[in-house]
Amino acid sequence: MVTLRAVIFDMDGVIVDSEPRHERAFREVFAAMGYAGTHGIEFQAYYGRSDRALWQDFVDRHQPPQPIDELIAWKQRRFLEILREDQPLFADAPGLVADLSASYLLALASGSLHPVIDAVLEMGGLRRFFPVIVSSQDVARGKPAPDIFLRAAERMGVAPGECCVIEDAAAGVEAARAAGMATIAITNSLPADRLARADHVVSSYSEIRALLLDRSRAACRQRPTRGQGISDTSTAGPRGPRGRMSPPAG
Known about the structure:
The chain is an alpha/beta fold. The protein has helices spanning 19-33, 51-62, 68-86, 93-101, 114-123, 147-156, 170-179, 205-217; strands spanning 2-3, 6-9, 105-110, 132-135, 163-167, 182-186, 200-202, 230-231. Helices cover 39% and strands 12% of the residues.
């Protein structure tokens, strides 16, 4: 068994209900550029990925006159305006973060840029819970590459196998798997079938709390195909229905 010591949170779609607001900001910029109905972007395909990844595909397709860094900054400015207007933290996320911080090392690993991360963490006074923050700006490759999660584990001083990642996007699930970490996916942004490669797929924060804290936090494990369970103690219960772990008997 490998002891679970750390939890790594994704941000967009996990802590803050930002995915529809990212899309709104992109659509407004596309419209201002004259591509309102012709941008050709399927937004869900970019959930969990960096803005640069989306803009790079847009630039490759349309060859706009603006350099990509200017486009990234334009969309970010509009997104931050929307974010500050709406303050869209998921209601149950701050409480979950606070509860987990009493038992685990926490990190935030987000495809967003640092100014966006800063704005979100200011909303609920959440920065104090995350001694380690990693942005897509800090790594060479964004999700679904594992770089961002591996950097977070390195900064926390823990092995990748001692980490559990909380995600909402398929790209993030793949990144966590590639990093050798356990994964919990919440269906805030995508349906369960799109997240099926996570170890556990849940629809509520109470389910995450149960997986990580109930019964001495023995519920979140690595995929059985890796042949290595993760628990906070030296035992873990048998696997129950898909997406859940049965707590230890007794």
